[in-house]
Amino acid sequence: MNGSHWHAQLRDTVRTVDQLARVLTLSPRELDGARRAEAQGLPLRITPYYLSLCDPLDPSCPIRRQCVPDAREAEDVPGDLVDPLGEVVHEVAPHLIRRYPDRALLVATDRCAVYCRFCTRSRLVGDGGGAVSLDALGPALTYLEGHPEVREVIVSGGDPLVMSTPRLVALLGALRRVPSIELLRLATRAPVTLPMRITQELVKALRPFHPLWVMTHFNHPKELTVESLGALARLVDGGFPVMNQTVLLRGVNDDVAVLDTLFRGLVRARVRPYYLLQADPVRGTGHLRTPLARGVEIMGALQGRLTGIALPKFICDTPGGLGKVPLGPEVIVRKGPGVTRLRTFRGDEVDAIDPPDDTR
């Protein structure tokens, strides 16, 4: 694959209302939202490739709902937060966020190939100078060197794969020189929005940094195209474990059949569905979020219907940065001394008997 193709995609991203209106027949809400995005808030940015997946006539297209601004982004609803995961208060050094004892997240850039309208970091994405220099990341690296209990770093942003390969390699090399870091994760949506970025040259450049896990972000079966499946194959064939985090979105994938198709397709591509995430309560995303009970209901319907390999955990990342909570249908009917009654996915009830205390 021509490595320059992804540069052309980034160069030709749609950023204005006029450009968008040449490709899509915009609804009044989309038109108002796109005008607002041009002036303030989360910018408009869509690669030609990802825009080609949109139905040009249907505003309810699940791809359009993810990338085309909506007038409702100007609305606040109860529970909305600018920084829903408390990343500002958990920033331990510039660009370094630590919410768990053994891992930290490094914000390597503020740029993405596509600005998703449900973005958790809409407060900062697209609003800075792009990739953060190694000099600017110096305090973060110093912090990691001084805290050997941090064994894992998630490189995120923005999307680190919109950075140049030499810059990305330099960053990963600097992290690998911290002796206590055992595992690196690369959080990217490039296989979805910019699959031509995943070249053999990139795979070769990243291979020295194993173990390096790739965390990607497919939300709908329409995103499993020939191009994206090819990108995933190159990563997996290069030895990179690939995990997927799907965000549960109203009108996009809050449907059992849609998620069944998506998760089966990912497993066929040798990608493990890792999380189904309750959408974070980012200000202006109320129209895209689902009630928590809907996710629990969907997981109940998928349990037993999908192989465990294809079944992700349903996760709510609690507001304020207090950590992720796994959720699912109630399976414990009641508990008694030595006996727990369970409900199976078919609705059957069965007792699990504890072993006797061994007092010998």
Please, what is the average pLDDT? Answer: 95
Beta-strand portion reads 15-25%
CATH architecture of the largest domain: Alpha-Beta Barrel
> First CA to last CA: what distance?
67 Å
Total domain count: 2
Strand line-up of the largest beta sheet: 1-2-3-4-5-6-7-8-9-10
Number of helices: 12
Helix content: 25-40%
Low-confidence stretches: none
The SS-based structural class is: alpha/beta
Describe what this molecule looks like in 3D.
This protein has 360 residues and is α/β, with parallel strands linked by helices. The protein folds into two domains: 75-327, Aldolase class I (TIM Barrel); 331-360, no CATH class. The chain contains twelve helices and 13 strands. It has helices at residues 5-11, 17-23, 28-39, 48-51, 62-67, 138-146, 165-176, 190-193, 200-206, 226-237, 256-268, 292-302; strands at residues 91-93, 96-100, 103-107, 152-156, 183-187, 212-216, 242-248, 272-278, 313-318, 323-327, 332-336, 339-343, 349-353. The strands form two sheets. It has a ten-stranded mixed sheet. Strands 11-12-13 form a three-stranded antiparallel sheet, with no helix packed on it. Helix 12 (292-302) links the parallel strand 8 (272-278) and strand 9 (313-318).
